[in-house]
UniProtKB/TrEMBL annotation, chains A, B:
Pathway: Cofactor biosynthesis; NAD(+) biosynthesis; NAD(+) from deamido-NAD(+) (L-Gln route): step 1/1. This is Glutamine-dependent NAD(+) synthetase. The gene is nadE. Residues 558-587 are annotated as: Disordered. GO terms for cellular component: cytoplasm. Keywords: ATP-binding, Ligase, NAD, Nucleotide-binding. GO terms for biological process: NAD+ biosynthetic process. Residues 568-587 have a biased composition (Basic and acidic residues).
Length: 587, 587
C-alpha cells in the first residue's frame, strides 16, 4: 500500500466572482500544503460558482473562466504551491465535436482540471448532465467523454464530477476498470432534507463498484435559491466512512489514506487521459486521526441552511442590512430570528405596522421579540394610508383585506429604497401553496427565508431555536435567552386582516394540511393516490382545490409580471447573485 | 402516382382541457371528412395542450390523457368518423425501458397516435427533446425510438413530432430509408420573430432529404408566455410549397397530393411500426386549388401575436375584462389598444392616476385615447394617498419616485380584486432590461403584453396600428379612425415621477440603446463582441452596466419573491393556464 494525504477544500464560492474564487483556491491550497497534503481538491465549478445558468452561454464569460484557470495555475506556482496538485472545477468549452440544432451556444463544459507546476495538466468535463429538480444542465452544457487518471505518489487518482457519481455506468465504472486507487469526485450538490444519508450511501456504493476509496468534496454556502451544505466525505473501498466534514461551514478535510500502488502496466483505453506526476509510492505510515463530524439532526440542518442561505444572499448581493414587517405572528418572528442569526440583530430592522384589525397582543408580542433580540424597530400605524385609498375606492371582502397587506409592502419597499435594506418576506410554504397570501403584499420582498418550509416545521424550528438559547453553535447568534416569546409560538394563527379572522376559517388544520401538501406539491401524487396513501378524501379534494385554484391569489389573480409573450427574442436566465462583470476596457 | 387528400387542422388547444380539446378534434375531424379528406392531422400534444410542464410528471394526468385518447378514438367512430384516419398529439408514458437517476417520474412521452375504426392504431413518441430557449423537455419527457409508417390509400405515411424535424439524422432519415411517400410532422412550434422563413426552409430541406412530400401542421393560439402562429405548410419532395395556412387563426388546410404508391415490398426495420389501413391506391385526379396564404409582414405578425397572446391569456384563465393604468405615454396607449383589439373596448377598463408631477398634456392625451376607443375610464388623483405615506416616511429621490408607482399599482390591484378584471402591465423590454421601472409598481400585473417588445418596436407598432384604421383584419377591432392620438406617439418619453423627468436623462437614446440590448440580452454577446459589431464602446459599457446592475431596480433591490431557499422539497413547475382538474370522485 502507498500513503497519500489528501485535502478536500469544502469552501464557499460566489457565482461570477472569478478573482475572489481564485483567491479562495490559493488561500486553501496554502492551508493544504501547510497541512502536508499531497493533493487538494475543490468543488465543482469552483472558479465560476454554481449554478451559472445562462452565463455559460456567454462566450466572454467562458473565456474569462479559461483565463482565470490558466492564471490560477501560474499564481499557485508563483506563490510556491506549484508542487501541490490542485484539482478544481471551472467552466470550459468544447472545441470541435458534433454540432446539433439547439446545442448550447459555444458548447460550454462543466469542467474540472488538475493544476501542477504552473500549468494546467489535464482537463475533463462532466459526462452526465442533471436536468431534474433544481438542475437545468442540458440547457447550458454539452457532455464530456474523458476520464483523467493522474498518478500521485504512485497512486492512480481518477476524477469525476458530481452527477457522474449518481448515474450507473459511465465514468465510475471506467475508473474501476482503469484500476484507479482513488476516485475523486468534485461536487456542487445542494442540501435537501434527508439528502446527507442518501449521499453517503451513494458514495459507499460507488466505492464498492469502483473497488477503490472515494473522496467526495462538496461546495458550502448559499447561492440564490440553493444552499450547499458541504458534508464532504471519504470512504474506503468497502464503503466505510473514513472522514467526514462538518455541514454548513467551510472546512479543510485532511485525511491520510493507505491506497494500492498503481500496477506497472495499466489497461489501454482511448477515453482515459493518463498522467504521471510522481511514480514512486510513499511508504505507508500511521494515519493522523481523521475528522469524523457527526451530521446535524434534521431541524438543526434545516435551520442552519436557512441561516446560511439568508446570510449569503444578503452578503453576496452587497447588502448589509434587512428590513421586515413584524406582525406578532410566528412566521415573521422566525424570519426575524433567522435574520439575527445570519447577520446580527444590529443589522436587522423591523417595522410594526398595526391596522385597525391588529390585536393588542400582536403589538405587545412583537415588542417583546424586539427587546429579546435587540433588533432595530419602528412602529407605524397604517390606518391613515388605508383610509386614503378607501376614500377613493369602495372595497369589500378580499379587496379590502389585500389593500392592507399592500400598504404594508409599500412601506417595506420605501424603507428599502430609502435606506438600502433588503426586504425579507415572511410567507411559509403552506400558505403560499394554498394561495393564502396577498400578491404584492405579504408575498413581496427580495428574499423569502421560509418560503420552502411548511407551517408545522415553522413551529418546530421556533421551538428548536428557543431550545438552543445559550448553546454555542457556529450558525447562531449567542442570545443568552429564548429569542422568540413563547406566546408567539402557541397563539392561534391569524392574518388579522378582518375582525376575528383565523387561518382555520379558510384553511384545513395544518396538522392535516401539511402532509397532503407535501404529497401533492412535492411528490406529484394525484387525487386517487393521495386517498390511497391514507389522507381523508374530503381533505384531499379541498386541498387540491385550494392549491390548484388558489382561492386567495391565483384564481382571483394569476401570478405576477413574469407572464408575458416571450416569442420575440430569447431572454437570459441568469443568476441573481453574480459578481462577474464584463471587462470595462478591452483586454 | 396515387391520390391523397390530406387535411391539416391548425387549431387552438388549451393546456389541461382534455375534454374541450377532444371536442375540438371531433369537430375538425368532421370538417375534414366533409371536405373529403383521406387523413386529418392535429398538432403536437393536441389533447393536453402545450407546454404542460411538470403536469407531465403527475401520474394521474398521464393516465387521464391516455384515457382521453382511447375515448376520443371510440367517440370518433360513434359519430361516424371511424373511417377517417386521425393523427393527433397527446401525452403517454413508456412502460419498461431503462431507468436512470433523475429520469422524469413515470417516463412521460410526448406522443402521437393514429386513430382509426374506434381504436388506437399505433403510438409513437418524440425522439429529440428540445431543451433550449423556451423548451425544457429533458426535464419532463423521455425519448421515443419508434417510427410509425401507415399505408393510407396505398401511400406510406410516416409521422414525426416537431423537434424530430429540426435535428439531423433520426426519424426523418429513417422515414426516407423506409420509402415513405409522405412525411407528416405534428408540431407545437411557438412564433418567433422571423421564424416563419426558417421553418419553411427547414421543411423544404427535410422533404428533399426524405425524398418525399412533407406536411407540417402547427398549433395556433396563446398559452401562458408562448404564442403559436400556425403557418402550417405542405411542400413537395423538392421543397416547393404546395399549400400554406394563414397565421394566427384556426384553419383547416386541405390539400390534394399526388404521391408515389408504396412498393410491393418494403425494407425491413425493427424500429418501424408498419400498418396498412387501405392498400389500394386511388387514381390520381386533378387537384383542387390549394390555399397558399401570404405570410404577414413583420409588424403585422408581431401585433397579431400580441393580440392573440393577450386574448387567449384572458380567456383561457377565465377572465372577461382587464384593467390598466393609462398614463398618457406610448406604452400604456399601445397596451390599451392591444387590449381593445383582443377583447373589445367594452371589456377594457382604464384608470387615469395623475400625480403632482403629471403634465396636463398626459391627462388630455389619455382622455383623447379613451374617446377614440370607447374604453371604460375613471380618473383618480393619487396625491392624497401619496401624502398619507409621506406623512409617516421621509422619502427622497428614487424612494419617493417609486412610492407613486406603487400607489398606482395598489389601485389597479384593488380594482382587480373588487371587480375581477385582469391587470395588464405596460412595461416594454427596453425599460425592463435596463431596470427602468418600479418593482411592485408599474411592473406589477397579471399579463404584460409588450414586455418582450423593445421601445423602438413599440413606436413602430403604434404607427402600424394607426395605419390599419378602417382595414379589415381578423385580429383588429374595426375602429374607423386612428385609435392612438398622434401626439402620444411623437411626445418625448417620460416616467413623470419627478419634475421635468425624461427617459433620456437616465437611459441612452432608444435608437442606439435597443440594438445593443438585442445583441447583449438576446444574443449573449460580451463587451468586446459588442464593440466589434460596431456599437459605440462607451454606449456598450453604459448599457451593460444598466442591464447588469440595473440602476433602478436590480441593484437597489433584487427581484421579487421567487428568491428563497428551495432545498427542502421539490416545487412543481406548472402551466398557469391549465384547465385540468384532478377528478373529484374516484373514477
Amino acid at each position: 500500500m502507498a500513503h497519500l494525504r489528501i485535502a478536500l477544500a469544502q469552501v464557499n464560492s460566489t457565482v461570477g466572482d472569478l478573482d475572489g474564487n481564485a483567491d479562495t483556491v490559493v488561500e486553501w491550497a496554502r492551508r493544504a500544503a501547510e497541512a502536508g497534503a499531497h493533493l487538494v481538491a475543490f468543488p465543482e465549478m469552483m472558479l465560476t460558482g454554481y449554478p451559472v445558468e445562462d452565463l455559460a452561454l456567454r462566450a466572454s464569460f467562458v473565456e474569462a473562466s479559461q483565463r482565470a484557470l490558466a492564471g490560477l495555475a501560474r499564481r499557485l506556482a508563483d506563490e510556491g504551491l506549484g508542487d501541490l496538485p490542485v484539482v478544481t472545477g471551472y467552466l470550459d468549452r468544447r472545441t470541435g465535436g458534433p454540432v446539433r440544432a439547439g446545442q448550447p451556444a459555444g458548447a460550454p463544459l462543466n469542467a474540472a482540471a488538475w493544476l501542477h507546476g504552473g500549468e494546467v495538466l489535464v482537463r475533463s468535463a462532466k459526462h452526465h448532465l442533471p436536468n431534474y429538480g433544481v438542475f437545468d444542465e442540458y440547457r447550458i452544457f454539452v457532455q464530456g467523454d474523458r476520464l483523467p487518471v493522474v498518478r500521485v505518489n504512485g497512486v492512480d487518482v481518477a476524477t469525476v464530477i458530481c452527477e457522474d457519481l449518481w448515474q450507473d455506468g459511465g465514468p465510475v465504472s471506467a475508473a474501476g476498470e482503469a484500476g484507479a486507487g482513488l476516485l475523486l469526485a468534485v461536487n456542487a450538490s445542494p442540501y435537501e432534507r434527508d439528502k446527507d444519508d442518501v449521499r453517503l450511501d451513494l458514495c459507499a456504493r460507488r466505492a464498492r463498484e469502483a473497488g477503490c476509496a472515494l473522496a467526495y468534496v462538496n461546495m458550502v454556502g448559499g447561492q440564490d435559491e440553493l444552499v450547499f451544505d458541504g458534508d464532504s466525505v471519504v470512504v474506503d473501498p468497502d464503503g466505510t466512512p473514513l472522514a467526514r466534514a462538518p455541514q454548513f461551514v467551510e472546512h479543510l478535510l485532511v485525511t491520510d489514506l493507505a491506497l494500492p500502488a498503481a500496477p506497472a502496466t495499466v489497461p489501454d483505453d482511448a477515453a482515459i487521459d493518463r498522467h504521471v506526476l510522481s511514480a514512486a509510492p510513499l511508504p505507508d505510515r500511521p494515519a493522523e486521526p481523521p475528522t469524523l463530524a457527526e451530521p446535524l439532526d434534521d431541524l438543526a440542518e434545516i435551520y442552519a441552511a436557512l441561516v446560511l442561505g439568508t446570510r449569503d444572499y444578503v452578503r453576496k448581493n452587497g447588502f448589509r442590512s434587512v428590513v421586515l414587517g413584524l406582525s406578532g405572528g410566528i412566521d415573521s418572528a422566525l424570519v426575524a430570528t433567522i435574520a439575527s442569526d445570519a447577520i446580527g440583530p444590529e443589522n436587522v430592522h423591523v417595522v410594526l405596522l398595526p391596522s385597525r384589525h391588529s390585536s393588542e397582543g400582536s403589538v405587545v408580542d412583537a415588542e417583546d421579540l424586539v427587546k429579546r433580540q435587540g433588533v432595530n424597530a419602528r412602529t407605524i400605524p397604517i390606518a391613515d394610508m388605508v383610509e386614503a385609498f378607501e376614500r377613493q375606492l369602495d372595497l369589500h371582502g378580499l379587496a379590502a383585506e389585500n389593500l392592507q397587506a399592500r400598504v404594508r409592502a409599500n412601506i417595506w419597499m420605501a424603507l428599502s429604497n430609502e435606506h438600502g435594506h433588503l426586504v425579507l418576506t415572511g410567507g411559509n410554504k403552506s400558505e403560499l401553496a394554498t394561495g393564502y397570501s396577498t400578491l404584492y403584499g405579504d408575498s413581496a420582498g427580495g428574499f423569502a427565508p421560509i418560503k420552502d418550509v411548511f407551517k408545522l416545521t415553522v413551529w418546530e424550528l421556533a421551538r428548536w431555536r428557543n431550545a438552543q438559547a445559550g448553546a454555542d453553535l457556529p450558525f447562531l447568534h449567542p442570545f443568552p435567552h429564548e429569542p422568540i416569546p413563547e406566546v408567539i409560538i402557541v397563539k392561534e394563527p391569524s392574518a388579522e386582516l378582518r375582525p376575528g379572522q383565523r387561518d382555520r376559517d379558510t384553511l384545513p388544520e395544518y396538522t392535516v394540511l401539511d402532509p397532503v401538501l407535501a404529497d401533492y406539491v412535492e411528490r406529484d401524487m394525484g387525487r386517487d393516490a393521495l386517498v390511497a396513501a391514507g389522507h381523508d378524501a374530503a381533505l384531499v379534494e379541498r386541498t387540491i382545490r385550494l392549491v390548484d385554484l388558489a382561492e386567495y391569489k391565483r384564481r382571483q389573480y394569476p401570478p405576477g409580471p413574469k407572464i408575458t409573450p416571450k416569442n420575440f427574442g430569447r431572454d437570459r436566465r441568469l443568476p441573481i447573485t453574480n459578481r462577474w462583470r464584463e471587462p470595462s476596457t478591452r483586454s
